[in-house]
Amino acid sequence: MPERGTEDSATLPAYASALGVRVDDASDEAPMLTVDFGPGVEGRPGHYHGGATAGLLENAAYAALRARLTAEGRKARLKPVNITVQYLSAGKAKPSFAQGRVTRLGRRNANVAVEAWQDDRDRPIATAILNILMG
């Protein structure tokens, strides 16, 4: 079992499993994650809870950063410094997808941008920017 915070890009933390998040496609530079709609992510009837959407975004950011670190032969503990989520439209009762992109990678800090969408990747339901400390 990997040391906490140092999972590889194909391994998701327990929180992701609790939400039902899984790796949908790892062929890109950063893994694409998905979660099916169900009682574990439902807020108001027929819609995703904002916290479930934020959880999907956060896990996609970590997966993208871990994939980049792995590609560079690095391991690090990841600690969020700041997470800003923008909710753009309500997530409906259908699968949601998310993928992160590392926008800056330093020795100790990383910035990751993430988008979540449902039917059309060009119409995100939410976005996030994460600043992550690596130790």
Describe the structure.
- It is a single chain.
- By secondary structure, this protein is α+β, with helices and mostly antiparallel strands.
- The protein has a single domain (14-134), classed as Roll (Thiol Ester Dehydrase, Chain A).
- 21% of the residues lie in helices and 34% in strands.
- It contains two helices and six strands, in the order αββαββββ.
- It has helices at 14-19, 50-71; strands at 22-25, 32-35, 78-87, 96-105, 109-117, 126-134.
- A six-stranded antiparallel sheet has the order 1-2-4-5-6-3.
- Strand 5 and strand 6 form a beta hairpin.
- The longest helix is centred in the middle third of the chain and has 22 residues, at 50-71.
- The radius of gyration is 14 Å and the shape is globular.
- Residues 1-9 have low confidence and may be disordered.
CATH structural architecture: Roll
Dominant shape: globular
In round numbers, the mean pLDDT is 92
What name does the CATH topology carry?
Answer: Thiol Ester Dehydrase, Chain A
Strand elements, count = 6
* CATH class identity: Alpha Beta
Global Rg: 14 Å
End-to-end gap: 19 Å
Which stretches of 5+ consecutive residues score pLDDT under 50?
Answer: 1-9
Strand coverage percent: 25-35%
Helix content: 10-25%
Domain count: 1
Compressed to H and E, one letter per element, the order equals HEEHEEEE
Largest sheet: 6 strands, antiparallel
Q: Give the neighbour order of strands across the main sheet.
A: 1-2-4-5-6-3
**Assigned CATH superfamily:** Hotdog Thioesterase
Structural class: alpha+beta
Number of helices: 2
